[in-house]
């Protein structure tokens, strides 16, 4: 399903933007945001690095959510760095994974600090001296990355310095009253398991925004 989607969405977007789609105009193009939580559980997508680098210009964005960098490395051994480099924004919420801590320490960069040394000799002819040395150190060491507050996050935006800030409090969101904690709550979402994937898709899709295609068109794209 995801493989077909990664093929069909860019193709349809190109047709709309180029004025070749039979029913949609360029102004009809909607932004599509894919939130891939627990990304590692999806398995390996064919040509995913190429897809990630090309969909942005077609009004498609992809959020990859993982627990640790090791999950990406296990799936995309030679391409994981390319995947990270294609992400304009990285958000670190916390982990116990050593590789992840080292990576975000490296991404935070260096800082310059002044070290003042003072020495003094006591006695009848005592003396003292003072020196100031400029050195570089990691802006955030791996240990400091690991110890950010549970209510804090590190945000890495392309071509910007790392930003350390508080996480969003969901209870301050304007629609927080719609949250639910248990099946007894009025807003509790009750998942209905359909007999087939197509039935489930059909029950949850807005048919007014469906763009019809055929198997022949999908094969032509591939």
Helix content: 25-40%
How large is the radius of gyration?
A: 26 Å
Q: Low-confidence segments, ≥5 residues, pLDDT <50? A: none
Oligomer: single chain
Task: Give structural notes.
The structure is a single chain. The chain is an alpha+beta fold and 222 residues long. The protein is built from 8 helices and 7 strands; from the N terminus they run αβαβααβαββαββαα. It has helices at 2-17, 48-54, 69-75, 80-85, 98-108, 142-146, 197-204, 215-221, and strands at 32-36, 60-64, 89-92, 110-121, 127-138, 152-157, 163-166. The chain is elongated and about 95 Å long.
Summarize the entry for a quick read.
The chain has 8 helices and 7 strands; from the N terminus they run αβαβααβαββαββαα. The chain has 222 residues and is of the alpha+beta class.
Topology:
Elements: H1 2-17, E1 32-36, H2 48-54, E2 60-64, H3 69-75, H4 80-85, E3 89-92, H5 98-108, E4 110-121, E5 127-138, H6 142-146, E6 152-157, E7 163-166, H7 197-204, H8 215-221
Parallel strand pairs: 1-2
Antiparallel strand pairs: 3-6, 4-5, 6-7
Name some characteristics of this structure.
222 residues; alpha+beta; 3-stranded antiparallel β-sheet; two-stranded parallel ribbon; 8 helices; 7 strands; 30% helix; elongated
